[in-house]
Amino acid sequence: MISIKVPPLGESIVEATVSRWLKKKGEAVASGDTLVELETDKITVEVPAPRAGVIASVSVAEGDVVKVDQVLGELDETAAAAIAAAPAPAPAASAPAPSPAPAVPPASSAPAQPPDVKSSPAARRAAADAGISVADVTGTGRGGVVSKPDVVEYAQRPQSVSRDGAQRETREKMSTRRKRIAENLLQSQHATAHLTTFNEVDMTLVNALRERMKEKVEKEHGVKLTFMPFFVKAACMALEKFPVVNAQIDGDSIIYKHYVNMGIAVASEAGLVVPNIKDAHAKGILDVSREIAAVAKKARDGKLSMDDLTGGTFTITNGGVFGSLVSTPILNYPQVGILGLHKTQDRPVAIDGKVEIRPMMYIALSYDHRIVDGQQAVLFLVRVKELMEDPAAMLIS
């Protein structure tokens, strides 16, 4: 017997939630086949079969919280050899067997389980036994998969129902990742002297540049040109001028980073994640565009690695893609600065004594006032504004 154990999950991560079993007890597997998926607060970890064999036992259920090196089940390596050595079954007799009478399913009061709901077999059986539909249960597994613990918890709790029979309230258990996100945000608020300053950017010139170049860039380089790489470049240049915004506090010391690993906040199905572009300060706009597209896809597919999520020094978050006009972003602790982007909106502004309609965007810098002074924060934001309003300056500065 070979124990199937929880592998190392990454720096400072000691537990995970069993998202779903891809193989069942008694099922033969090849070496390297993914047996089970574990969801941590940062990434989804696939546990492969160490050898070929048959799954002899499963020790944990979907939804269970497990720790590093905990046994998930056992793999019988000898069973695979026995299966391979077994003689092929003899061919059936040529005489046709009588057709069996069609089975009549027994009547049951359990509701039919909708086939399009993502749920484990154990969850569907538990739902049928409890007389409920898995469609009413909120799944906590990866991608919203309903597990047996989800069904059990749903069946045990009292339901709040309106007079017409419609359910008015539901209770949903936080996933491991959502709990960790909540802890990090709360820690950021409690552990820093949090302050936000604002400015606005006239997006006229960078709009014109993007419109002029986007078709050519996509055709020649296979990259969709968005505004984010321009902001990444502008922020890197502003951080070079104001390095304290890219620093970190360690006890009573300040660590200045002479590089920029730019975190890009990405909204995924599992929650907010912040993969980072390593050494963004040394990369051009097209390279940054490629890397942003790559990490965003990995985030949506649940394929981010620990390296993608660690080592960031500064973060940019873009609420504008969802229509946000202005907000105060929360620091990605232990970083001391985060740049918030918002919706570009046509507004009347005074230009050379005349009122003109321009595409304007509010930008916000939240910073840790313990080491970043108000003057440095304001001047950093002004530098980002200047570079975005004259994108040619990014090439000659």
H/E element order: EEEEEEEEHHHHEHHEEEEEEHHEEEEHH
Portion of residues within helices: 25-40%
> Strand tally, please?
19
What's the overall geometry?
A: elongated
What's the end-to-end separation, in Å?
64 Å
CATH architecture of the largest domain: 2-Layer Sandwich
| Sheet of most strands | 7 strands, mixed
Provide the β-strand percentage band: 15-25%
Q: Supply the CATH class of the largest domain.
A: Alpha Beta
- CATH topology (fold) name of the largest domain: Chloramphenicol Acetyltransferase
| Total count of helical runs of at least 4 residues | 10
- CATH-assigned homologous superfamily of the largest domain: Chloramphenicol acetyltransferase-like domain
Determine Rg (CA atoms, Å).
Answer: 27 Å
Q: What structural category do the secondary elements indicate?
A: alpha+beta
Low-confidence stretches: 103-110
Ordered list of secondary-structure elements with their pairings:
Elements: E1 2-5, E2 15-21, E3 28-29, E4 34-39, E5 44-48, E6 53-58, E7 65-67, E8 71-76, H1 77-85, H2 121-130, H3 148-156, H4 176-191, E9 194-202, H5 204-221, H6 228-241, E10 248-250, E11 253-255, E12 262-264, E13 266-268, E14 271-273, E15 276-277, H7 285-301, H8 306-309, E16 314-318, E17 337-341, E18 345-351, E19 354-368, H9 374-389, H10 393-396
Parallel strand pairs: 12-16, 16-17
Antiparallel strand pairs: 1-8, 2-4, 2-7, 3-6, 4-5, 6-8, 9-19, 10-11, 12-15, 13-14, 17-19, 18-19
Helix pairs in contact: 2-3, 6-7, 6-9
